[in-house]
């Protein structure tokens, strides 16, 4: 299924994606939250899970923010209203949350960043703000009013004082109340302000949007790794000039041509996206590589073990090249023959890998090596792992 209600994928991409907001009523009929409020609060007690609580009228001033992990007693001291708990990357820890994201497969899977779940009491909000990325806001429980405002940017005035970026000015253009199963899509830089009407949960599906600087740095890293020392600045077409100290437009055009020749390589740019977009969101939580001997033991019992599954934190992508297929995971690259296209497509397009399905895919020696590498790095796992 997709979650666009009566909108077709073609209509959504043509008319709304990165263009303008759209409210989709009953996008997910009968939706039930994956976690109760107390279970979500339980996640915020964990050291490795990123969480925040925003209190609109805190002891230290408006829009007070507290970062987890929280002691259990912290929740007992919260006010009766106007606070919000936000738990980041729930899909990294709850398999069912990772599977929920499969309903957004009409968009490139490597673009999805994470699923954030927020629980708010009556009046709870994180204030008027904007994001630099696309987001789907799925109402999971209760009601939340969403106010939509102006297009914002780096120069938009921000309130002084709060440790979160609250817009100083909010120019409301639309207002809706969302019920369970309703969903609001917002392109980047659209001001929005959500306010809970009673206790509620909202699921935020956010997308990766690397900055120009991040992409340039990644491209530079790729160029440096594959650079040819013979490719240098040249000026065989020099003509006489009045001043020997001047850098002319012709000089900078030669430099531009040299840099363009380095960057205008489709395979290199695919590597930039593939590596950058599959990097771990939380590298410090990446599982340690298993010992080679463990692979041999696991293979010996393959037919008796539970089905394989993509690690919840993992992001996979691939690209086709004249020489075959390139597969990306955890910021790494594997070069495979064309014969492994079916294998990498299967790995990228699914979260679960039943043994019989995986065994039925013909793959090369390099493809078998890929499975081994992914398993040893715990980017795929079976029920016998401690994932």
Notes on the structure:
- The protein has 10 helices and 15 strands.
- With 387 residues, it is of the alpha+beta class.
- The protein has 3 domains: 9-207, Cupin (Jelly Rolls, Sandwich); 212-234 and 246-264, no CATH class; 283-381, 50S ribosomal protein L16 arginine hydroxylase, Chain A, Domain 2 (Malonyl-Coenzyme A Acyl Carrier Protein, domain 2, 3-Layer(aba) Sandwich).
- The longest helix has 15 residues, at 212-226.
- It is globular and about 75 Å long.
- The mean pLDDT is 94.
List the helices and strands and how they pair.
Blueprint: H1 9-15, E1 22-24, H2 37-43, E2 51-58, E3 61-67, E4 83-87, H3 95-100, E5 112-120, E6 135-151, E7 174-178, E8 183-186, E9 190-207, H4 212-226, H5 249-263, H6 266-277, H7 292-300, E10 308-310, E11 316-321, E12 324-329, E13 332-336, H8 341-349, E14 352-353, H9 355-359, H10 365-376, E15 380-381
Can you summarize this structure?
This protein is α+β, with helices and mostly antiparallel strands and 387 residues long. It contains 10 helices and 15 strands.
